[in-house]
Amino acid sequence: MNIEAAEEHLVVVSDLHLGNPASSARTRLVAFLDHVRDSGASVCINGDGFDMLQTSFRRLAADAIPVLNRLKALQADGRNIYYVVGNHDIVLEHFLEEWSLCRLSPFLNLRSGDRRIRIEHGHLYDPFFAQSPTLYEISTRLARYALFTVPDTYKVWAKAQRRLQDARHRRVGRPGPAADNGHRPLSLLGSPYHDAASMILRRGFDAVVFGHTHLAEMVTLPEGVYVNSGNWLSGAATYVEITKGELVVRTWEGSADAVTVREFRE
């Protein structure tokens, strides 16, 4: 198990949910990984790369094999492949540990440029998962049926959690919304993920990268920068690119010529 890494150029993706019947990641990831290979970057899959809770073996194999082949090509070129375990792929932990393709870890402490960056899936800070992991798993398995009517139930759930948290803060008189670098209004600082990021930043990190919520964002907290890489399940395929310590959230739109920077960066 390796939790320390140094990379000057790293691409972070999360929540691919390969094998999930509602995921379109496979068809987009192949071209994306070819683009990453051309760019010279290493890759970190920040949790829920494989969806073991909402799939069948046949579907998972069909989705995973083309992606694994591209990752092997990256490795053959000398790139590093990191895999941070999430809640949908935690059952693969021991299998992946023996898999020589990637470096498996529960989190990754990255040194890039002159900055220390923590990369972690983030599910441990989900109040529902932390308080009732068994009920959470059951609910997740049932949610696969909702995916056919609501394209991303996870994103809907994350937004609902945020509204509930904001309501609690208003009841106890916490500060209202702030703005990140003038780009857009933020939800209240103090969401479970912002609170968790603040705690980690106080340990000596300059930035924290989570996945899990499916909501791509970049937030400047008093202690440092919080970034979420979003998801590839449906809709926008977002990722975080780290270059010599600088973090940017980008959207993959099908080709190297169509990569766009989101409305937020440091």
**Classification by helices and strands:** alpha/beta
Shape: globular
Helix content: 25-40%
Q: Record the strand order, biggest sheet.
A: 5-4-3-2-11-12-13
Distance between the termini: 31 Å
Largest sheet: 7 strands, mixed
Average predicted confidence as pLDDT: 78
Q: How many helix segments?
A: 7
- The total strand number stands at 13
CATH topology: Purple Acid Phosphatase, chain A, domain 2
Specify the CATH class: Alpha Beta
- Radius of gyration, Cα only, in angstroms? 18 Å
Integer count of domains: 1
Output the helix-strand order: EEHEHEHEEEHHHHEEEEEE
Fraction in beta strands: 15-25%
What are the key terms here?
7 helices, single chain, 266 residues, 6-stranded mixed sheet, 24% strand, 33% helix
Structure description:
The protein has a single domain, classed as Purple Acid Phosphatase, chain A, domain 2, CATH 3.60.21. The chain is 33% helix and 24% strand. It is built from 7 helices and 13 strands. Helix 1 links the parallel strand 2 (9-13) and strand 3. The two termini are 31 Å apart.
Give a short overview.
This protein has about 270 residues and is an alpha/beta fold.
Topology, please?
Elements: E1 4-6, E2 9-13, H1 25-39, E3 42-46, H2 57-76, E4 81-84, H3 93-97, E5 103-105, E6 108-112, E7 115-119, H4 127-131, H5 133-146, H6 153-171, H7 192-201, E8 207-210, E9 217-221, E10 224-228, E11 237-243, E12 246-252, E13 260-265
Parallel strand pairs: 1-6, 2-3, 3-4, 4-5, 7-8, 8-10
Antiparallel strand pairs: 2-11, 6-7, 9-10, 11-12, 12-13
